[in-house]
Amino acid sequence: MLGDIAYALDQSAIVAITDRTGKITYVNELFIKMSKYRPEELIGATHAIINSGYHSKEFFKNMWATIGRGNIWHGEIRNRAKDGSYYWVDTKIIPFLNEKGIPSRYISIRNDITERKRLEEKIQKDAEVYRVITENSMDFISIIDLEGNFQYVSPTHKHLLGYDLGQLECANIHSIIAKEDYAAFDKAVAMVGDAPAVLEVRVLDENNRVKTMEASLNLIHEEGEYYNHLVVAMHDISWQKESEVIIQDLADNDQLTSLFNRNAFSENLDVALKGRKRGSKVGLVYLNIDRLRNVNDSFGHETGDYVLSIIAERLKDALSTEDIIGRISGDEFAFTTLKAVSEEEVERLTGEIKSCLEMPIQIDEETYSISISCGIALFPDHAETAAELIMMADKALHYVKEQGGGIAKMYAPEAATKTLERILLENELRKSVQLGHFTLEYQPKMNLAIGELAGVEALVRWNHPDLGRIPPDKFIPLAEETKIILPLGEWILREACKQAARWTRQGFKPFRIAVNMSAVQLEEPDIVETIERILMEENVSPELIEIELTESAFADREEMRYTIQRIRDLGIIIAIDDFGTGYSTFSYIKELPADILKIDMSFVKDIDVNQNSRAIVKAIVTLADTAGLNVIAEGVETVEQAEILHGLGCREGQGYLYSRPLPPEECEYMFTNVSKDE
């Protein structure tokens, strides 16, 4: 019987016998197999031959003290095999006592626990990793039961919210959630299953300050202590929500006057018209401050802005709270007359408001007289939609301006007919496209961090042989309206590509040339094929071309997205121009396939003195980073502006600080030292 037990033990355990001094006198086959030593190497040696160096001297001192007193020692030991590999054994050392009760030899019985120890080490390592992550993460991680009671809370709840972790672990998650969000959170808890539930929730810190969190709830499916509990991971997005509020204000409101901008005005007008009873009338007035440019030239742009703010305040005072008021562009405003019930009443009310607006303004101890031009359209007499009504009021205003301005005029079909001057200008525009009276000038864009050239923007110039240089703001709208922009735009793109090829052949480092493109061009069904053909014919890499889309290109996001993406698929960079001046709201940015955002110069011009402008630019940069967009600032005129923009995270700048728009040969002279290959 004892022999059978000894045999079974010898086959299943690692067995060794030593004399009282520790010299090995016997080892079984498993000992030899584990240690990888030959029997003759082991017999006569001590267990030091397999010492791994893992355990301290104190460890072995205690072991010898135990067995030296005749007691059984039990523990776990890491050994080192002959080939240098390590293995763990669960060990019992049993002393054999002589007649005097003194140990004469020892038998050690070991079991291989290497795999178990490796698993324990992995678990311990993973636990340490998880501990480090949860203690240093900026996220708020907790485990709750299905009733919302905390089972675990990460240290972040103390570091960033100020709560005592011990007290919090005895509380319910409702104790830190705003009451208004209880229902939404509980609904998410009830809905979570195989897929996580994600929601925004407001959390209160120790001082009842609100933080907005994006919370993800995951159900634990694995068997264990927290089976069927929820892991709640919350990420603080308060900064993002604050930035979005600023961006939304930027998207809806003109920053100088706090009135609706063009896009928001159009949207609110649309809502108002759709809510009107059948047969009721709404007057829409488009007004222009005549010769405001003279104020800017004589007194400076700050004074011009002051005049605009005065006009805005007078409009607010003169109109009812139900009326919609907006600043449409630099010197143009629009408002409704919702309470007027007839064409005569709209004209009378417009006249009264015009008189109020034209009251003299005191500027630097001088009195400045204001002249206002107004174009009026009536719903539903002249148009049945907001877009059409705006068009009719705008046409009436243009007619007034062509007649010299200073009056108010109701829309009439004859007011929309072309004047002789307009016909002549359109004729000359068509001829000039055919005869090549246009040139391109290039304005550099600079890297704000290192002061190197980042690219140029191509700007079209019309040099008429008889009429002289005609400003872009006079002929570009006409070109778009008459679709002359199609051949003109194709020429601009081709000329920019030719110039890119020339500069490449001259050895200048590659940089992008930005070309402006209007919504009219994008609406052409073959625009993508036209662009691709020009690139191929001029042998220009698409990466050298950047297309800047005007804000009107974003008016119909769904229709434009596919075209813009196809252009982008060619390898061309897409930039959103004049951000913040109408259609280009952040919601569009997140949806459209764009690469670059250009901050409008109106937010740059006073960034060195206006904290609100700084906050707006910072919010734009932050959210652009979130959307993966590069940011360029337009209208940089001083070193201080450039430094502030760089500090706010803006990467590139463009403006007269670096250079005015230049002909190609002057542009080459300017950037020879920064762009040419060494």
Automatic annotation (TrEMBL):
It comes from Sporosarcina luteola. Residues 15-44, 126-168 form the PAS domain. InterPro entries: Biofilm_reg_signaling, EAL_dom, EAL_sf, GGDEF_dom, Nucleotide_cyclase, PAC, PAS, PAS-assoc_C. Residues 422-675 form the EAL domain. Residues 280-413 form the GGDEF domain. This is GGDEF domain-containing protein. Coiled coil: none annotated. Residues 73-125 form the PAC domain.
